[in-house]
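STRUCTURE REQUEST FORM
Protein name: CASP-like protein
Source organism: Vanilla planifolia
Requested output: structure tokens
Priority: standard
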Amino acid sequence: MDTHTSRVASSVETAVTDKSFEHPARVSNAARRKKQPGIKLQIAIRVLAAMATLAAALLMFLSEQKTEFFGLSIIANYKFSPAFKFFVIGNAVACAYAVLSLTAVGCCGSTLPCVQFLDTLAMGLVMAAAAAATAVGYIGKKGNSVAMWNANLAK
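Status: completed
Returned output:
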């Protein structure tokens, strides 16, 4: 062998036997998790978000209100308003996503672009559902005199 070939062969042999360098595809999930600070905090926040959205969806789904109006019994339920249906479904979807995203975060971390994008979508869904339910609730409580929706009839 000439000197150039022997130098290339020795450098290749050194690179192959050197354990300090690992190919990114061969890095284990445990090593990947160690490199990401705050993974326990992210998992705790996702569990908290799943519990909060589940509680909101179940509270709205299971609640029912009855009132008397001129001797008639009137029942209010979430099914009677599209905004309240959107609130229940939006929170249920966000809860399911939070539970499913726990596996992705626990395995690969939250640096995946799809996890960050879906986190943003879930946040937007919950915010829109809460805003819609709040608007309907406000009109139901206070009424709207311009639209002649009086809320004080049942008093």
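Reviewer notes: Helices lie at 3-17, 29-35, 39-62, 82-108, 113-142. The chain has five helices and two strands.
Form closed.
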